[in-house]
Amino acid sequence: MNRRHFCAASGLGLGALLAGRFFSGNVARAEEPKRRAEACIVLWLNGGPSHLDTFDPKPGSKNAGKFRAIKTATEGLLFSEHLPKLASLSQKFSVVHSLTTREGSHERARKLLHTGHTPNPTVAHPAFGSWVSARRGGKSPELPAFVSLGGPSADAGFLGRGYGPLVVREPGKLPDDLAILGGMSPERLGRRLSARQKLDAVFEAETKSHAVVERGDVFAAAARLVNSPSASAFDISSEPQTSRDAYGDNEFGRGCLAARRLIEKGVRFAEVTLDGWDTHENNFERIQALSGKLDAAMGALLTDLSTRGLLDKTLVVCMGEFGRSPAINNRDGRDHHPEAFSMLIGGGGLRAGTVLGATDGDGAKVVTRPVRVADVFATLSTQLGMDPHETLMTPEGRPIAVTDGGQVIGELLS
Predict the structure, then answer these.
(1) Is residue 223 part of a domain?
(2) Is 237 part of a structural domain of the chain?
(3) Number of domains observed in the structure of the chain
(4) What is the DSSP string of 63-122?
């Protein structure tokens, strides 16, 4: 058997994103605050959704656009007419209307909204899901702590690849490379893994390389998942048709349903991607279609979590990298606008039915209670029982904290 076949058989392709050991394990951990949430689901609206055409409409303004604003279950809060289910469920989450950043490029904004740190070419900041994976771990020894459904998310940066996400390209189905190739028995696979461990032990002793240890953890995690009945949580085919219909027969809907199943089985952090929000042209047609997918899937997710008694234990966050400009361009689109945008956040012990901050009459500027991205991550960290100011050393000897000086958003605490 050549090296390629051995790696495939032992699950390297799958396991490279599953588990690892942070190489500075002697760093002291801060005392954990009271835990209020056990898991987190992020619904990532890739491309930057227009706040004006979703969660912060401005009826009657010059650039209000083509959609009608509708009332929600929260007094004074308006949503787009294409989000009726979320409007009816607004008492299950809070809305932040006053997020503001300086990052107007997709790449930099994605990094900021995934890590809580302004991008710096000299530091590989970890995704927030990687911090959660490293500091809280998974509740199941057989499933990865951090899963990305339908998108690559962000990697683990200096924490090491083992804390990065397991990326599932087709949400609702089993991950790639899960099956043992060639009909190999679990016993035979076990013998091969044991042989590899012995070889790695010799190599690690000679090189003193933490990468060898990390790779060993990767192999072990892959083997646990390959042989685990818990892996069925990725596959939604056993769900009743009524449940699948409620979430929506599309990649995002299937991803949200899979996220609920994975959280139930012990995954700590799941991210589901809904792509297509970079609406420089045909903004209204495209957002209407995207809003339909978001409304059905997020509405079903909130209802499902609540019914199962999981919403109080699970943070649910819906956000993108920035908002869109009030001005409508000559292609019937809206351009990048980081100065003011919105997010939805709820569950996990946070206060629901709250509207935080406000933008001006055209949705261009934050006029009350500006919120930084670092503050959002400080709040999420605290709710998940993590110290937002805990600092670890990078391999280059630079101290990096979970958040970039973020402060907990007190108005969202219950």
Answers:
(1) no
(2) no
(3) 1
(4) T--SPPEEE-SSTT-EEETT-HHHHHTGGGEEEEEEE--S--SHHHHHHHHHHSS--BTT
